[in-house]
Design brief:
Length: about 350
């Protein structure tokens, strides 16, 4: 018998994680399951977006096969995102099929990043498929501002979605993008609100991804300024808490809750990067901030065996870049990258 073969009393050994050229273990895969969305957030999309032809998208079965290949290669955490992942038709079948990796112990976690609009419908089902945590993006508690930021969104529907998620036993984290002159006065209230409901909150700097028909300089608010303003109202205690991601956390003494900052523009977090991203067409991006990518759809479709797919994944990880260098300043008003966040998945 093969020495590594599992027996009843000896479970299958964990696959060794993929290691990139900078000695980082790649254990986290973010998957954009659709580039479409029921909102049109001003920092994310232009009002009239051209979406990918449906025929270019991976089917749900292909997405399952792709995710499962990464799990076999040592990925321990999957995040489904988009676009809005929960508007993809039949998406619950993907959560359902991927849940086998949680049951077998091959995967530690499946999470979702969502705008919350479909959570009333899906929260309980998600929990049933083993999802324990969801990130909900919410930049304001003012219904008019919410409509202005998302162009099409309804705040009440999102709040009802958060209620449903918590009622279903999902742990909710709020993500808020800091927008100059839009929600900067409100961020302290948003923190109090989130913590009052037992939710962590992370504030994100606007990143220069995709042409959105507006000037990024008008939106950009450095988090150093956000933090200084929050420190006028709250005592922010440094803590060690890390999720393996780019957020740096503090504990707000007055609320007892956790507050994260994601600062791609003013702070480089690449040295501990453990993640790669797949688009809904099967393109693998080794870095959110770089153009280099690998097509995994062709090897996926070329054969029913996964050998070519594994080889393409290995080859891509071997050229994961060291990091990104986003810049928004007066000389660089164009997006650093032409693709939108909704394509690569936030
Ligand atoms: C692209 S969305 C996809 C998932 C889902 N539709 C949502 O809104 O949560 C993921 C995250 O990216 C953030 N985002 C989108 N465009 C961004 C940008 N240009 N800079 C910073 N964050 C951005 C959103 O606020 C959201 O929290
Ligand atoms: S941030 Fe999320 S909800 Fe807003 S337009 Fe982009 S994908 Fe849609």
């Amino acid at each position: 018998m093969d020495a590594a073969a599992p027996t009843l009393d000896r479970p299958a050994a964990r696959p060794a994680p993929m290691i990139d050229p900078f000695n980082r273990a790649i254990t986290y895969l973010r998957v954009s399951v659709t580039d479409r969305c029921d909102f049109r957030c001003v920092y994310c999309m232009s009002e009239h977006m051209a979406f990918l032809p449906k025929a270019d998208l991976l089917t749900l079965e292909e997405l399952d096969r792709l995710c499962s290949a990464f799990v076999a290669k040592g990925v321990r955490k999957l995040r489904l995102t988009g676009g809005e992942p929960l508007v993809r038709r039949g998406i619950m079948t993907l959560f359902s099929s991927l849940s086998r990796h949680l049951q077998s112990g091959s995967l530690d976690e499946i999470t979702v990043t969502t705008n919350g609009s479909q959570l009333v419908k899906y929260a309980a089902e998600l929990r049933g498929y083993g999802v324990e945590r969801v990130n909900v993006s919410l930049d304001t508690l003012d219904p008019d501002k919410f409509r202005a930021i998302t162009r099409w969104g309804d705040l009440a529907q999102v709040i009802a979605g958060i209620d449903a998620a918590q009622a279903a036993g999902l742990k909710v984290k709020i993500n808020a993008v800091a927008l100059k002159g839009v929600n900067e006065d409100e961020l302290a209230d948003l923190v109090s609100w989130a913590h009052g409901r037992g939710m962590d909150i992370t504030v994100i700097e606007v990143m220069p991804l995709g042409d959105i028909g507006e000037d990024r300089l008008d939106q950009y608010l450095p988090l150093s300024m956000v933090r200084a303003r929050l420190a006028e109202r709250f005592t922010l205690d440094e803590i060690d808490y890390r999720t393996g991601g780019p957020a740096r956390y503090v504990r707000v003494r007055e609320t007892g809750g956790r507050l994260g900052f994601i600062t791609p523009m003013t702070h480089n977090f690449c040295e501990s990067c453990n993640r790669v991203r797949i688009t809904c067409t099967g393109t693998l991006f080794m870095c959110l901030g770089q153009e280099d990518a690998a097509d995994l759809r062709a090897p996926l479709r070329a054969s029913e065996s996964d050998a070519a797919l594994y080889a393409a994944i290995d080859e891509a990880i071997a050229r994961k870049p060291k990091g990104h260098d986003f810049i928004i300043d007066r000389r660089h008003k164009r997006p650093a990258l032409s693709r939108h966040m909704s394509v690569t998945g936030g």
